[in-house]
Amino acid sequence: MSKQGKAREWIDISNEKWREYLVPAGGGAMHMKINDPVSLAITEEGHEIKDSKGAIHEIPRGWLKITYLDKKYAEDEEEKGAEE
Predict the structure, then answer these.
(1) Is residue 59 domain-resident?
(2) Which residues contact 67 (CB under 8 A, 6 or more apart)?
(3) Is residue 2 part of a domain?
(4) Dist CA 11 CA 49 (whole Å)
(5) pLDDT digits (tens, 9 = 90+) for 12-33
(6) How many CB atoms sit inside 10 A of residue 40's CB?
(7) Is 5 a member of any domain?
């Protein structure tokens, strides 16, 4: 349930190896990286992300950039590295 009592709608993002947000911080910006994200809820306040360990990460609105890596591409890169 959300802070306002409404049920969250969770979107499956388990295909992502990691997800990283660039957020404003003290006149600059900082990176917030979440490994093994499983699901995402989009709220009026921002994003909530559940990871594979059950932790919920709250990212407030106002981020500057979101970057994520699809597991398929990560596996392809790992295989290339193993072949070299």
Answers:
(1) yes
(2) 19, 20, 22
(3) no
(4) 9
(5) 999 999 999 999 999 999 999 9
(6) 20
(7) no
